[in-house]
Specification:
Elements: H1 2-11, E1 15-16, E2 21-22, H2 24-36, H3 43-57, H4 63-83, H5 85-103, E3 105-108, E4 116-121, E5 128-132, E6 141-143, E7 149-156, E8 163-168, E9 175-178
Antiparallel strand pairs: 1-2, 3-4, 4-5, 5-6, 7-8, 8-9
Helix pairs in contact: 2-5
Length: about 180
């Protein structure tokens, strides 16, 4: 059903907000498919198949013929997709990296003014903290709680101007904090 399709799009992060706003990731997937396999998102194909299915219900067309044509169309589409699979994947991977980078940004570094503050996971200590991406020129950093799920909110602190961080730890109520 359409409701299930919309829920899947929300769950995968392709759309957001109740009024349905396409995310950067959703745009990237659409662009990758338009550029490398436009038939897969063809509105005309969907309309034609829906129309033919209605005609099958009304007994104007035979189901076998509709299925044979749909199978042929889908085989062509999937063959084209398979040929461009690596290009499509690379395009989507770039978008995923950009989305993840933006989701981890807290704001402009107040110390150096050149870098951005991001959530960083230390390879050495396995701990997380907020640090300037202009390292080693700037070593500005702020601690983060090590337990719980961290979400950077769109609201900013009235004192320092950096984004507020929400922490959700198991067995505790979520809380918000300024990193500074």
């Amino acid at each position: 059903t359409r409701a299930q399709i919309l829920q899947t799009l929300y769950d995968r992060g392709y759309i957001e907000d109740p009024s349905i706003k396409v995310t950067q990731l959703g745009e990237a997937v659409t662009t990758a498919l338009e550029n490398n396999c436009p038939e897969i998102i063809s509105v005309e194909l969907t309309k034609r198949i829906e129309k033919e299915m209605e005609e099958v219900e009304e007994e104007k067309l035979k189901m076998e013929q509709v299925l044979k044509e749909a199978r042929e169309d889908l085989t062509k589409i999937l063959t084209a997709f398979k040929q461009n699979e690596i290009k499509i994947g690379q395009h989507i991977l770039v978008a995923i990296k950009e989305v993840n980078k933006r989701q981890n940004e807290v704001g402009k570094c107040p110390k150096c003014g050149k870098g951005m503050l991001n959530i960083i996971y230390s390879k050495k200590t396995k701990k997380r903290f907020i640090g300037c991406n202009n390292y080693p020129n700037c070593s500005n950093s702020f601690p983060l709680p090590q337990m719980g799920h961290i979400t950077i909110l769109n609201t900013t602190c009235k004192k320092c101007g950096l984004k507020i961080v929400s922490v959700k730890a198991k067995g505790r109520r979520p809380w918000k904090l300024c990193i500074k």
